[in-house]
Amino acid sequence: MTDKELRKLKRVDLIEILYYLEKEVERLQEENKYIKEQLNVKLSLTDEDIRRIAAAVTENKERSADEEKNDENTTTDE
The whole model's pTM is what? Predict the structure, then answer.
């Protein structure tokens, strides 16, 4: 809507437009809040996943090192 068209509107019409715009702002703020909460949940899950992966990698390295030592001992015993 152009400025010219807005100027021709009656006061009641302008108040109605303001009312609906305010409702839209409220809806968008709620949506924004929800999306931010979802993002925070996903980020915290990602941090937890990183910790789990790091622990699994460390465990696998230790297990591999132990297996290599056992293989070396088995090979030298033969």
Answer: 0.52
